[in-house]
Amino acid sequence: MSSAHTPSAHTPSVFQAFTGLSDDETEILNQADRFAQAETYPLARRMDDEEWWPEDIFPKIGETGYFGITAPESLGGAGLDVFTSGLILQALGRWNYALALSWVAHENLCLHNILRNANEAQKAKYVPGLIKGTQIGALGLTEPGAGSDALGSMSTTARREGDHYILNGRKIYITNGPVADVLLVYAKTDKSKGAHGISAFIVEKDFPGFKVAQKLIKMGFRGSQTAELVFDDCRVPAENLVGEENKGVKVVMSGLDLERAMISPICLGMAERALALSVDYAKQRKQFGRPIAEFQMVQSMLADMYTWVESMRLYTYQTLRAANVIGENDGGRGEIHKITAAGVMYVAETLNKVLNHAMQVHGGTGYMWESEINRLYRGIKLLEIGAGTTEVRKMIIAKELLSE
Ligand SMILES: Cc1cc2nc3c(=O)[nH]c(=O)nc-3n(C[C@H](O)[C@H](O)[C@H](O)COP(=O)(O)OP(=O)(O)OC[C@H]3O[C@@H](n4cnc5c(N)ncnc54)[C@H](O)[C@@H]3O)c2cc1C
Hints:
Elements: H1 23-50, H2 57-64, H3 82-95, H4 97-117, H5 120-132, E1 137-140, E2 157-161, E3 164-175, E4 182-188, E5 198-204, E6 210-215, E7 226-237, E8 241-242, H6 248-284, E9 286-287, E10 290-291, H7 296-324, H8 334-367, H9 372-377, H10 390-402
Parallel strand pairs: 1-4
Antiparallel strand pairs: 2-3, 3-7, 4-5, 5-8, 6-7, 9-10
Bound molecules: flavin-adenine dinucleotide (FAD).
């Protein structure tokens, strides 16, 4: 790093908050934090600068036991819960938020969805490689013409031909898309039934007719790889249909609630890091002959940030605890639908406020691309767009409130 001020990588005091976690949960978070700082933080800057994908990191995460958190031990998993996977994500969010996004697309959107919805043969085939990190997972729902209206406007089709389904269509903005080996993909098996004609499939990258059309260049989360994918008469064995034909909407909706619950810990980790960096910077940076931390207007920003981070922590953990007990047929409606939408909406919007203050505390240093606070700042917007935009989150909350 050149002229810009470089805050120390480790400012632990701000991470030692009153968390309401049990001793075991605190230990898991602290262990994951140590791993994330030692193994993923050193990769973050190059990942951001070059949109570089470090090929060794997924197998290393797998070896360390940070994949398959919710998978049964019989498949090589840790047999723990969604809440615990949220803690690991929080730690990754602090030290390498782009990797945290890749992790959640792999672990939650792909692997956890397969665990919840696939049959035993499919789990036996795909889950162990995903847990080892030797196979990378992704989920393909969004299409060029189907974003917020992902189900209604979906135009990717799958038609049965003997013992295969033939998929045709495009998926866009797919996290891990350029590097994924195993993708959970949604397609319409019966166009006449709208959202109730959707099915889920496991697609391998080597299936004929599957192609990465382009790697997409982003303003933030740059180290996480994002792609547009093409299915051109892509041949998927019929045994790779997940769940029943035309019942994919259940998989999508419960998956989206879980995804929303799991975006919040990334926001929390990023906000904790932004606060830590800002406290550190305010103590070190001198103007008018004194550290800027002595100026009350700077103190005011730090106090706001601390309060917002703690409110994010409460909401994140509350939402994750709710997601922990989501039943097989739950999701996509009711209390869990409302709280996961509200949780991620609040936490993402509050992260925006935290990072706005963090940038202000850092002055010109924060405006420089090479500073860590700049990297964090460029990440904000995705968290108000992915997994359903703020507007979609509001639509969900209002619909549930008005139907009570
Ligand atoms: C970096 C990144 C990673 C992603 N990863 C994945 C992934 O791994 N897998 C995947 O399937 N998808 C992924 N997505 C897609 C993401 O879920 C969509 O971008 C998101 O759902 C919004 O869709 P859209 O971008 O098409 O926006 P649009 O739906 O076109 O929305 C544009 C604007 O219109 C507003 N709007 C739309 N409809 C309404 C309405 N009815 N009322 C009010 N406002 C409305 C929206 O809120 C938004 O402000 C990713 C996106 C990004 C940017």
